[in-house]
Design brief:
PyrdxlP-dep_Trfase_small; transferase; EC 2.6.1.9; amino-acid biosynthesis; 7-stranded mixed sheet; binds pyridoxal-5'-phosphate; alpha/beta; about 375 residues; 4-stranded antiparallel sheet; about 15% strand
């Protein structure tokens, strides 16, 4: 051997493709490609982050005690059963790392979150995809795909990149059908965008069951994507196992303090939810008007919409046409969605620009 040999399961990883922040020509543009909050960050979180700059010489609180206590008080859950992560991405990796390895399988749906196959391969496990039901999570298909080697099941609810939602009844049915020794991870990155009546019951399941973990993030509605703060809630034994492999100082001081402040920013959260609901509805209605041109929006409960292009105008053409107009969206050919664009709900002006551009490209106007 003349050089270090990369592990075959690492070599098999198709690297994560982040949402773009600049156009092909390198110009900054409206970023509707990463599901960030168009209303920005709560003012209180910005101030807490700035205040943390007074002590950059000390390590952060390795246990994120104040943050876990604030999360516990906010959601009515036990702080000692919460784990903090460098984004919820890290929490997903920790779950895979603690419960799966070479020879094991990690199961998720087709058109699931693109981090899941990476989290599986990273630890040498085999990623397994269950078929979708019209782009949504199919509980029967997931249960049918379980084998004696299945160790972890990842379900995002709402799902990314489809925006589809799985009801509490379906989540319960999925859990009830899984072997007790399979860890069910319910990834609730977009849960704050749901209407109150749409609670999928995952936190309750994680409280009472020995094999359910819920993950959440401060990157989406809380507007703190830059700081990389996520968390998980689950049985004490699962949390303890994940702590063993967590980086000791994985969330920065500024991030911890900003997140505590963001939790208290109720008006900001409320406004963000209302803005999203209003413009997601408007956007869906406008896409429906382009049905004759082959455009169709998958019904979404998140802060983005997956638009399918099944007519003369292709998703690839629309992606480039929108980029030329300074509008960045997510085209996902690598995820089997060559015919789809995932478009984040941005500001009113951005959403109007997207629709105007799509109408022109589809030949409906002009
Ligand atoms: C955005 C997202 C996450 C998490 O992101 P972090 O920034 O790492 O917290 C997790 N799951 C899904 C489905 C997401 O879309």
């Amino acid at each position: 051997m003349t050089e270090p040999l990369v592990k075959p399961w690492i070599a098999a990883i198709a690297p994560y493709v982040p949402g773009r922040a600049t156009t092909d020509g390198g110009k900054p543009a409206a970023k509707l490609s990463s599901n960030e909050n168009p209303l920005g960050t709560p003012q209180a979180a910005r101030e807490a982050y700035a205040a943390a700059a007074a002590h950059l010489e000390t390590y952060p609180d390795a246990g994120a005690t104040a943050l876990r206590e604030a999360i516990g008080a906010h959601y009515g859950i036990e702080p000692e059963r919460i784990i903090h992560g460098t984004g919820s991405d890290e929490v997903l990796h920790l779950a895979a790392g603690a419960y799966a390895g070479p020879g094991d399988e990690i199961l998720f749906v087709r058109y699931g979150f693109s981090v899941y196959p990476i989290a599986a391969r990273r630890v040498g496990a085999t990623p397994v995809e269950a078929p979708d039901r019209d782009y949504a999570t199919d509980v029967d298909a997931l249960l049918a795909a379980v084998t004696p080697r299945t160790r972890v099941v990842f379900v995002a609810n709402p799902n990314n990149p489809t925006g589809t939602y799985t009801t509490a009844e379906e989540i319960r049915r999925l859990h009830a059908g899984l072997p007790r020794d399979v860890l069910l991870v319910i990834d609730q990155a977009y849960t704050e965008y749901l209407e109150p009546e749409d609670d999928d019951g995952a936190l309750d399941l994680a409280r009472s069951e020995a094999n359910v973990l819920v993950t959440r993030t401060f990157s989406k509605i809380f507007g703190l994507a830059a700081e990389r703060i996520g968390w998980g809630y689950g049985p004490a034994a699962v949390i303890a196992a994940m702590h063993r492999i967590r980086g000791p100082f994985n969330v920065t001081t500024g991030g911890q303090q900003a997140a505590v402040a963001a939790l208290g920013a109720r008006d900001f959260i409320q406004q963000s939810r209302e803005h999203n609901r209003r413009w997601r509805t408007w956007f869906g209605d406008e896409i429906a008007k382009l049905g004759n041109a082959g455009l169709r929006a998958i019904p979404s409960k998140a802060n983005f919409v997956l638009v399918l292009f099944e007519g003369a105008l292709t998703a690839e053409q629309a992606y480039h046409g929108l980029m030329e107009r300074g509008l960045l969206t997510r085209w996902l050919p690598g995820q089997g969605l060559r015919h789809g664009l995932r478009i984040t709900i941005g500001t009113e002006a951005q959403m109007r620009e997207v629709i105007a551009a799509l109408r022109l490209m589809a030949g409906v106007d002009g």
